[in-house]
Amino acid sequence: QVQLVESGGGLVQAGGSLRLSCVSSRNILSIDAMGWYRQAPGKERELVASVTSGGSTDYADSVKGRFAISRNNAKNILYLEMNSLKPEDTAVYYCNAHLYGIRGEYDYWGQGTQVTVSS
Q1: CB atoms within 10 A of CB 105
Q2: CA-to-CA distance for 33 and 42, rounded, in angstroms?
Q3: Rg of the chain over all Cα atoms, to the nearest angstrom
Q4: pLDDT (tens digit, 9 = 90+) per residue, 73-82?
């Protein structure tokens, strides 16, 4: 089991910045992959950024060069630094932990944090 608690969302003007945080109840280096997803009204949840336990990162094309995913391993916190925000970044952002087990794969989710970007 992994409990994830996000924070850091809010209302920001276009061009502004926000940093999201996700505190994990489990040592994040023991989690195979962690990521940030987002879901806008009427749309499917999409991957924004991810990082593996080995440190490899991946980003959606729409956020490359603007967002950065990082970890504080000592504090078990996952971050998403968001810069040059656009109105289309408006969504609920979710933290995800993905684990590979003997019996299959497991996904754990936080409760989500709202990010609203005004034009």
Answers
A1: 10
A2: 27
A3: 14
A4: 999 999 999 9
Task: Summarize pLDDT for 48-97 with one digit per residue, the tens.
Answer: 999 999 999 999 999 999 999 999 999 999 999 999 999 999 999 999 99
Q: What are phi and psi of 66, to 5 degrees?
A: -115, -35
∠ CA 39-111-2, nearest 5°, is 120
DSSP string, 80-113: EEE-S--GGG-EEEEEEEEEEETTEEEEEE---E
Under DSSP, the state recorded for 31 is S
Sequence letter at residue 88: E
Q: Are 39 and 47 in contact (CB under 8 A)?
A: no
How far apart CA 10 and CA 18 sit, in angstroms, is 8
